[in-house]
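Example 9 (inverse folding). The structure is encoded as follows.
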């Protein structure tokens, strides 16, 4: 198995890149989160990789961080999620946002990713509930608040027109024990400062 590549970045054609490692060019598919953070062509790059063998192809997937690769591996274990879908999920939302959506059991956030329908989103929520390791993914449960309270605050912010990233970021900063109305008020204050 190929676990890591380090070499010169020769080509960038999303979602695929070409990395020269000692004269051998490896075609690697990467999520857009990795693609946007790649160095320029001709520069050195190091990728954590996952080698996937299918009946009709052998594919190499690359990630700038080990967290992305571990999340990709967890996504592949979900029934009905293949490598292409897993790559799409990681392109549509960051690992932290995915972990937060799983923690809050927010299917609505997942169905906004192209190719993810309601049933697939519900399957992701069910099968990844205890597997992403919120500590490892960087998303901690919000200070002992009940999931429903956090979810209500998040839904209110989304209804007010904030995007998922802004809403999730402000919900993460809320202290424990707030009512929903106080949570919304504090989240709005933090959003108005940015």
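The amino acid assigned to each position is listed next.
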């Amino acid at each position: 198995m190929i676990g890591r590549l380090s070499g010169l970045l020769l080509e960038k054609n999303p979602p695929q890149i070409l990395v020269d490692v000692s004269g051998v060019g490896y075609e690697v598919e990467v999520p857009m989160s990795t693609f946007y953070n790649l160095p320029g062509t001709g520069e050195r790059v190091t990728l954590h990789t996952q080698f996937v063998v299918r009946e009709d192809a052998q594919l190499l997937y690359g990630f700038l961080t080990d967290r992305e690769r571990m999340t990709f591996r967890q996504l592949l274990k979900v029934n009905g999620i293949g490598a292409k879908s897993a790559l799409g999920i990681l392109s549509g939302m960051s690992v932290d946002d995915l972990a937060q959506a799983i923690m809050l059991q927010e299917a609505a956030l997942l169905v906004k990713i192209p190719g993810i329908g309601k049933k697939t989103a519900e399957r992701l929520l069910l099968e990844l509930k205890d597997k992403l390791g919120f500590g490892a993914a960087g998303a901690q449960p919000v200070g002992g608040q009940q999931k429903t309270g956090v979810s209500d605050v998040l839904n209110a912010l989304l209804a007010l027109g904030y995007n998922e990233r802004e809403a999730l970021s402000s919900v993460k900063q809320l202290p424990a024990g707030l009512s929903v109305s106080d949570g919304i008020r504090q989240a709005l204050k933090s959003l108005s400062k940015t």
